[in-house]
Amino acid sequence: MPSRFASLMMHSMVFRLLFGFVLPLFLQSSSVLSNPLQLGLQSTSSGLPNPSGLKVGFYQYTCPNAEAIVRDEMTKIISQVPSLAGPLLRLHFHDCFVNGCDGSILLNSVMGLPSEKEAIPNLSLRGFGTIDRVKAKLEQACPGVVSCADILALVARDVVVLTKGPHWDVPTGRRDGRISVKQDALDNLPPPFFDAGRNLYQFFIPKGLDAKDQVVLLGGHTLGTSHCSQFADRLYNFSGKGMADPTLDKRYLPRLKNKCASSGDTTTLVEMDPGSFRTFDASYYRHVARGRSLFTSDQTLMNDPAAAAYVRRQAAVADSGAYPAEFFADFAASMVKMGNVQVLTGAQGEVRRHCAFVN
């Protein structure tokens, strides 16, 4: 069996390959080995440069009012249907995690070949009509200029701002992909029933996202709802043992069971951040800290000391009613970083005329 020092050396080699540098962990305690999330929390977002071709203000000359058009449409839409904020933010996540931020989540199936939309994790997605509406406005103003992939990134930023969250400058210049495959979504989206450590190494790190990005981006669950089917196993058959997840708050469990009457409930929606699910804030971390998050992927953040410390820090801010400056700044940075994943630029891909179909 390799020594603990040898194991640590292997971990450092992996991070050299992934990030191009060795994290300064050798002076830290050996507890790092038993807490894999801690590895990522020690790294920073600065290690990955902005991809060539993406820049803030990309449409300054070709469609100078592009961002204003998106913002105006989103202001109207969210004022009328505020429940769309969470789903529209989720669309950007689900796009970027499957072969990069290329708008492939928006493509319809063709000729019997199922697209990403048809994958089980995407069946509950909403907001496609909103993206079409925004695209139509942009096509009227600047035909064939603004990509669907950029629309997703801009809409995600705007729904956060419109629900009292942070603003950030969105680098644009993405091109749209021409391929959307159902199986790719199944292979690349982090399941809510996996633990945080597994999701980190299997889905986040291969995309250049680290453990801090993970704990920060999961804070986006402050917006929106989830179907009972996404977490029913934690209520009725956790780990196949016919019992509830022991990490769930015992006082909260009966309330969830009352909402989700059976493990087969596929229609009922539950607020991910009860009492604040239409406001972007740090209050979701309070639920994680208290064992009240819906998903295994979120609750198991508390298994790692570094991730748990971040959760508790944001929960304390939410409890105090203070402005969540750290979380807001971190979320903005992680959103920009995620928005850079495997983008198409320059002559790659295309700019779709309609987001659901290739040109």
UniProtKB/TrEMBL annotation:
Its EC number is 1.11.1.7. Keywords: Calcium, Disulfide bond, Glycoprotein, Heme, Hydrogen peroxide, Iron, Metal-binding, Oxidoreductase, Peroxidase, Secreted, Signal. GO terms for biological process: hydrogen peroxide catabolic process; response to oxidative stress. InterPro entries: Haem_peroxidase, Haem_peroxidase_sf, Peroxidase_pln, Peroxidases_AS, Secretory_peroxidase. It comes from the Eukaryota. The record marks 90 as: Transition state stabilizer. GO terms for molecular function: heme binding; lactoperoxidase activity; metal ion binding. One of its GO terms (cellular component) is extracellular region. Removal of H(2)O(2), oxidation of toxic reductants, biosynthesis and degradation of lignin, suberization, auxin catabolism, response to environmental stresses such as wounding, pathogen attack and oxidative stress. These functions might be dependent on each isozyme/isoform in each plant tissue. This is Peroxidase. The lineage of its organism: Eukaryota, Viridiplantae, Streptophyta, Embryophyta, Tracheophyta.
